[in-house]
Design a protein that fits this description.
single chain, alpha/beta, TIM Barrel, 2 domains, seven-stranded mixed sheet, globular, binds N-(aminocarbonyl)-beta-alanine, binds zinc ion
């Protein structure tokens, strides 16, 4: 099947150009001037006049079907990938979660069983390491051979995923030896647990106290500690879901000092705030995630960080739990509210608002949502770019279309929208995954088995 996308503005991380895009089979084969494309004969022509033609979004941080807090995140790989496609994301990198006492390779098998044959878009895995021992460290090598080249660790959640500084150092040393990237959930979980116990003992049980017991200073401290451990071990470090100005300062300092430290933030930290956690009744539970939503000054710092490249990726940390049956588990005890916010469908649209508002440029939008995640996680130039030889993961985006985000219209398998009623300028018109149109004309045309597992290379900023 050959397709010619005509009349659009091709946007890459490098800039914009008026060009037609020729797709043959699963790949982009050429960018053509309109004159040159007049002579081409193809099976289908897609008119992209007045629209952007961008590389499909890469969401490097999702949690489909993730066991957490006594329940499981509500999107399967099937429903989550469908929602992602609607929102212009054509690749997800999800987290396989090692349970204590289990092996990394058995974990990987388990995640393959969840995703293989069920995902409509291409997907890869990071590995969450929660049980550091000799066998685990050895297995990191086999994971890398299997295309899982990044390992997430937690300074938060004592008793669940938490790793001590010593364990983190060991894993980082192994990352140094193997070339892997360590991803860090940087919050001081030991101190936070004391604050949580104090709040609950004092009868402060509302969702707002989830935010108040996880102060930004404890994210800043943990981020600085993670950076120090990575420096001693000599491994690359990627801070996930960075939310606080204090943490950003630590990252900026490390980068200025020449250390291989990278960081992502998420749309919820740019567009939502602590005020949402304080919504009346139990509604704040919809906004419980960790690190928590912050005050608006932090969001302003994050937008700045996206401009200066101290924040180089925006991922969603999509981790949906239904309000009625799952968030409910924490009524009367905020510490029992499953942590996570749904968002895989909205990242491209939300970050486009950053373009509309003048916070970031159009090429930067593409860079932080697609090109840099591709390079960071070993997928470039197969993904993350519109160029000959790349996979035809292409989004045609209408910058003038208006839409209102709502649970009534979204496609994620969750009973609320964290962005209910938010008016958006811009909308996906067409999503293509490896040359196949999976969203067009307001219809979903994908199928569960279309997505391939992506065996990823090492971090390409370090090669
Ligand atoms: O609240 C969050 N972030 N839930 C998902 C798990 C994690 O820490 O990324
Ligand atoms: Zn985390
Ligand atoms: Zn996460």
């Amino acid at each position: 099947m050959s397709i010619l996308i005509t009349g659009g503005t091709v946007v890459t991380s490098e800039g914009t150009q008026e060009a037609d895009v020729l797709v043959d089979g699963e790949q982009i084969v050429a960018l053509l001037t309109p004159d040159a494309s007049a002579d081409v004969s193809v099976d289908e022509v897609i008119d992209a006049t007045d629209m952007y033609v961008i590389p499909g979004g890469i969401d490097a941080h999702t949690h489909m079907e993730m066991p957490f807090g006594g329940t499981s995140s509500a999107d399967t790989f099937e429903t989550g990938a469908r929602a992602a496609a609607w929102g212009g994301t054509t690749t997800i990198v999800d987290f396989a979660v090692q349970a204590k006492g289990t092996s990394l390779l058995a974990t990987l098998d388990k995640w393959h069983a969840k995703a293989d044959g069920n995902c409509a878009i291409d997907y890869g895995f990071h590995m969450i390491v929660s049980d550091v021992n000799e066998a685990t460290l050895k297995e990191m090598e086999a994971c890398i051979e299997g295309g899982v080249t990044s390992f997430k660790m937690f300074m938060a959640y004592p008793g669940v995923f938490y790793a001590t500084d010593g364990e983190i150092l060991l894993a980082m040393q192994q990352a140094r030896r193997t070339g892997a990237t360590v991803m860090m959930h940087a919050e001081n979980g030991i101190a936070i647990d004391q604050l949580v116990a104090q709040a609950l003992a004092a009868g402060r049980t509302d969702p707002l106290h989830h935010g108040l017991t996880r102060p930004p200073e404890l994210e800043g401290e943990a981020t600085h500690r993670a950076i120090t451990l990575a420096k001693v071990a000599g491994c690359p470090l990627y801070i996930v879901h960075l939310s606080a100005a204090q943490a950003l300062d630590a990252v900026a300092q490390a980068r200025d000092d020449g250390q291989n430290v990278f960081a992502e933030t998420c749309p919820q930290y740019l567009f939502l705030s602590l005020d949402d956690l304080g919504r009346p009744g139990f509604e704040g539970a919809k906004y419980v995630c960790s690190p928590p939503l912050r005050t608006r000054e932090h969001s302003a710092a994050l937008w700045r960080g996206l401009r200066t490249n101290d924040l180089c990726v925006v991922s969603t940390d999509h981790c949906p739990f239904c309000y009625k049956e799952q968030k409910e588990l924490g009524r009367g005890d905020f510490a029992k509210i499953p942590n996570g916010i749904p968002g895989v469908e909205h990242r491209m649209d939300l970050l486009h608002q950053g373009v509309v508002a003048g916070e970031i440029t159009l090429p930067r939008w593409v860079e932080i949502c697609s090109t840099t995640p591709a390079r960071m996680f070993g997928l470039y130039p197969r993904k993350g770019v519109i160029a000959a030889g790349a996979d035809a993961d292409i989004v045609i985006y209408d910058p003038a279309e208006r839409q209102t985000l709502s649970v009534a219209t979204h496609h994620m398998n969750v009973d609320y929208s964290a962005y209910e009623g938010m008016e958006i300028t811009g909308k996906v018109a067409v999503t293509m995954s490896r040359g196949r149109v999976i969203v067009a004309d307001g219809e979903y045309k994908g199928s569960p088995g279309h997505g391939n597992f992506l065996a990823r290379d090492l971090n390409q900023y370090l090669l």
